[in-house]
Amino acid sequence: SWQLGNGEVNLPNPLVIAGRQMYDPRLLGSGGGGAVFALRPESSEGEVAVKVSWLRSTSSVESECRILRVMEENRVPGVEMCLAEERYPSDKR
Prior knowledge:
The protein is of the alpha+beta class. The chain has a 4-stranded antiparallel sheet, with no helix packed on it. It is globular. About 10% of the residues are buried. The mean pLDDT is about 85.
């Protein structure tokens, strides 16, 4: 669990998103909308970023994911992929 200036984040280890198991969450940064973590996927080398957003930022993050998917479909170089969207159930605010 991480106690951040903008709230608390609890991530299980492993974290399962869209059927993918990811391990060893490491905080990359946080702000008013939530926090970003690096995790190690079970089936590949390297890390993936997981954005945990607060309830009030949900629509903004969903919009960001839609835009990233359109950019991927249009083969825009150098853009990260949005692999999945899931609700963060632990936001008590």
